[in-house]
Amino acid sequence: MFNTILLTIDLNAPASWKMALPQAIELVRASKGKLHIMSVVPDMGTPLVEGFFPEDFEAKAVAAASEALNTLVSAEVPEDVDVKQHLAFGKIHKKVLKVIDEINCDLVIMASPKPDRVREFLVGSNADRIVRRSPVSVLVVRA
């Protein structure tokens, strides 16, 4: 069984948790484990792009994401589920892989939309990067 499950979500895309969250709750309840829900506010990518944003952008983005994550967890996670929230700022796949190690995760659950070959070829997907690099099993739920 899985004692520590990490659910990764995109707070701007309800499809990233609408189907994956019920799966995570079901597995956590079955194992009497702990659910960790994580969202990452992506960084700007390069210092050149960062220069176009206000100086306090990161702080404001993280504060807004924190509030949205609290609201989501309060509204969607039943009280009988042991849950911990994680919020990070940076490269999504790198932050998720770091938390996998930090919490001794047994399973990662994430949603991923139907593949778009052109987009995948040009930029790849965070789900793909996490699946390929994760030291634990990853359950990908089609969104």
TrEMBL record:
Transmembrane domains' residue ranges: none
All copies of domain UspA, residue ranges: 1-142
InterPro entries from the UniProt entry: Rossmann-like_a/b/a_fold (IPR014729), Universal_stress_UspA (IPR006015), UspA (IPR006016)
Domain of life: Bacteria
Stretch forming the signal peptide: none
Family to which the UniProt record says this protein belongs: Belongs to the universal stress protein A family.
Protein's recorded name: Nucleotide-binding universal stress protein, UspA family
